[in-house]
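Workshop exercise sheet. Pairs work together: one partner reads the sequence aloud, the other fills in the structure field after running the prediction. Swap roles for the next sheet.
Pair: D.N. / O.F.
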Amino acid sequence: MIRDYLSLRLLGLFLFFSLGCTLLNQTKPKPEDFSLQYHWSESALPPLYHYEYAIHLGPGAQGLIEFWPDYPGADTPVWTETFEVANEDLDKLYALMGSQGLLIEAWLQSDDLPDGAPADSLQVTAEGRQIGVPSYVAPAHQEQAQAVYARIKALLPRPIWTHLMARYEQYQQDVLAGRQPAESTPTRFF
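Structure field:
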């Protein structure tokens, strides 16, 4: 009888904790103000071999990428392209951020900053709060950050990325040949 009682108590505790963990892992619906700015920068390379880009998402289904084919500055062009993001893809991204802990805890910068390595950072707006993720997050959150960054980059349509990299290669060729890089207007991909 005591054995049955203990078994029932253990089963009850297990169910209680299982339900609690399930409820904690459920992410609230994506808020109306959900938006982000993800920035990536190539390694510290000589000019012309360095590039940077920023992906802006939301609020809403609008996306934008800014691309610098060199170190940003007065003489470096900024190429921009816009694109649409499906609401369900934004919902999945928000849920991923929640499941990775980004929306509830601060991700700190690593104490060991690599010299000249590629860098990425993220700024998120959700429920009126600003959440910042520094470049080179601490080891405890590196895997979570990479999962979030990969999902963000996957939302950029492949034809836009292909187009920007072709422009970047042409820009390099023009500068190396002493030609003024050609200006072109943004291309519509949707």
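Discussion prompt: The radius of gyration is 22 Å. What would you look at next?
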